[in-house]
Structures are given as C-alpha cells and as structure tokens.
TrEMBL record:
Protein's UniProt keywords contain Membrane: yes
Principal location: membrane
Transmembrane segments: 33-53, 74-92, 112-133, 154-175, 195-219, 249-275, 281-304
Keyword line: Membrane, Transmembrane, Transmembrane helix
SUPFAM superfamilies registered for this protein in UniProt: Family A G protein-coupled receptor-like
InterPro entries: GPCR_Rhodpsn_7TM, GPR143
GO terms, molecular function: dopamine binding; L-DOPA binding; L-DOPA receptor activity; L-tyrosine binding
UniProt-recorded name of the protein: G-protein coupled receptor 143-like
Gene name tied to this protein: LOC106128438
Length: 357
C-alpha cells in the first residue's frame, strides 16, 4: 500500500517505548498484515495484466469513413501499467518483510533502511502515477465528447514527471541525511520533516476525488445534450445510452473512493490524534488500505471494461445511434406520427471510445 505512516517505519529508531512506531508495533501483527498485502497485490497484478493484454488495440470506424485509435484504451493501458508496477512493489516488499519477520529496521541496520526506503519510493511513485492517469481519463472523456483533441504527450509528461518530483521531494526530506524521523525534538521539526511527504501523498488523492466527479457530471450532461438536441426529444434509446454512460462514470468514481478514502482517513486521524493515538483503529485502517490499495487494479478492470447487455457486447456508437433515431417506429408521443427529422451533423468520432462499453 502507499501510506506515509508506513514509510516512516523505514527510519532508524532507538528501540524506546516512547517511539510511536514501537508502540504501534507492539500491537501490530506484521505477519497477517503482510499476508493480506501479498494476496491483494497478487490480485492487483492479475487485474492489471487483464487490462493490458485482453485483446490487441485496434482501430475502428467512426461511421464516416475515418479510422481512429482508441484514446480511452491507451489511457487505460497506462493506468494498468502503473497499477502493475505498484502492485509488484507491494508484493516484493511484503514478501521480504514476511521472510525476515521485521518491518521496522533494527537501529544499526543500514541495508534494511535502504531496502525499505527504495521499495516505499517505488510503490509511492507508481501509485501516484495511477492517480494522475485516473484524472486524465476523466479529462480526456470530457474533451472527447466535446470533440477536442487529446494531448498524450502532455499526459505522459505530467503522469510520470509530477510523481517523480513529489515522491523524490517528500521522501528525500523524510530520509535524508540519516533516516532519523522518530523522536523529533520539536513540533516544528516534525512538521518540516514528515508533513511534506503526507502532502505529496494526500493532495493528489484529494484532487482526483474532487475534480473527477465534476468532470464526469459535465461529461454526462454533454452527452445528454449531444444525443437529445438534434431531435428535440429524448426517447428510450437515447436514455439507455446516456444512463449507461453515467453509470459507468459513477462506478469509476466509486472505485477510486473505495480504494483511497481509507488513506485519507488514516492521514486525518494521525495528524488530529497524534498525542492520543487510537492504535487499534489505526491498525484496522491499515488492514483496509492493505486490501484496497492494490485491489484498485482489479476493480478498474471491472469498471473500465466493455459492458455486456442481455448477454451480448453492448457497443452503441454514435453513428449507429443516428441510424437508430431515424427508424420509422420512433413516433412522437404527442402527435402519434413520426417527428420531423433534422440533419445530424457528424459527432466527434472519438466519442465512440467512451460510448462503447
């Protein structure tokens, strides 16, 4: 999992019971925790691989003689790659922790400190990348529906570059120069040493939780207007397409909240109850994070996939919707006759990436 509290365990400690980490370890069953991490990370790896290699990326016709690559599919693949690498980091770290029966390095164990900090940085980096790819999927969804171009180069620059900066800065402040982040003498030194890493972790999560629902609400309204306005009416066929898209957007948001809200809860509890830490509750939240963080890959494979309707692949493209809307059995509910048909202008071809479930 990706959590700044666990990352502080990589620091040297004195072995004193005054250390918060030592107090927590006294009540923490590290073996069962690492087993949960192993199981969830393995499931996450399987989910990531399923997303990356279910079928080859192919071009499809937009109904007007053009060929377009699937913008959405490319983003999903990179999201799955980041999930895969993060789950591998959790798997390796938990395997070695389980093998050597220790999470907190011994006071003079430099090798364990180095291993712990590297695996923590690896996991933190790739999970941060997944948060940005989740954000860019929502952004590109709205841009596609509006008929605007994608910016894959910009997406890659931010999704891989910003996590490198935030992870590097946050963990460098925490570990350099001597990896001693326990028993800091003043509250100010604790804030300056530990808080930046918390911000580097939780600010991107909170940003996605706030921005993505707004983007998907706007995308749903845009689809509804795009489908309904040309005919000035909204039949069951249009409603089915719009409702399916809105449901998919809603479930994407739910998955992100389920996987990462426990991390925010943990952070709030740590900083608001520092002097009266509810250790048992904190440990329970850690188990939830250990289960749900790597599980993101599997849940993403479920909500980003193509959906089935009535046992068949439901592939409504907007060009096919145009054809459906011109069927003679679509009668006006007021006149009892076929409504006047307006000439439909070609809709953005890339919208099929998101209408195809």
């Amino acid at each position: 999992m990706s959590d700044p509290t666990i990352q502080t365990f990589c620091c040297h400690h004195t072995g004193s019971k005054e250390d918060l980490a030592i107090r927590i370890m006294d009540e923490f069953n590290t073996e069962s925790y690492n087993i949960v991490c192993l199981v969830s990370s393995t499931i996450g790896i399987i989910g990531s691989i399923y997303q990356i290699f279910p079928c080859k990326i192919s071009s499809h016709s937009d109904g007007f003689g053009n060929k377009t690559n699937s913008r959405a599919r490319n983003i999903i693949i990179w999201l799955a790659v980041a999930d895969l690498m993060a789950s591998l980091g959790v798997l390796v770290r938990s395997s070695l922790w389980l093998r050597y029966k220790s999470i907190i390095p011994l006071p003079d164990d430099e090798i364990s400190v180095l291993f712990c900090s590297i695996t923590s940085a690896w996991t933190q980096y790739f999970y941060t990348a997944t948060w940005f790819w989740t954000l860019f999927y929502a952004i590109d969804t709205l841009r596609t529906i509006k008929g605007r171009d994608s910016h894959p180069t910009l997406y890659h620059s931010i999704a891989w570059g910003v996590p490198a900066a935030t992870t590097g800065i946050g963990l460098s402040i925490l570990y350099i120069p001597n990896a001693t982040c326990h028993n800091l003498k003043t509250v100010t030194s604790a804030f300056l040493r530990i808080l930046p890493n918390y911000c580097a972790t939780y600010v991107p999560i909170a940003m996605v939780m706030i921005v993505n629902p707004v983007l998907y609400i706007l995308a749903g309204k845009e689809v509804e207007m795009t489908v309904a306005l040309p005919l000035a009416q909204f039949t069951s066929k249009e409603r089915r397409v719009v409702d399916t898209l809105k449901l998919k957007f809603f479930l994407i948001n739910v998955v992100f909240y389920v996987c990462w809200l426990p991390n925010l809860v943990n952070g709030v509890m740590i900083w608001t109850m520092w002097f009266n830490m509810p250790v048992k509750i904190i440990i329970s939240v850690w188990y939830i994070m250990a289960l749900m963080n790597p599980m993101q890959a599997l849940l993403n494979a479920l909500v980003y996939r193509r959906w089935n309707t009535n046992g068949k692949k439901y592939r409504p493209t907007f060009s096919s919707i145009h054809k459906e809307l011109n069927l003679p059995d679509e009668l006006s509910p007021l006149l009892g006759s076929e409504p006047p048909r307006m000439q439909l202008s070609p809709l953005p071809p890339g919208i099929n990436n998101y209408a195809t479930m």
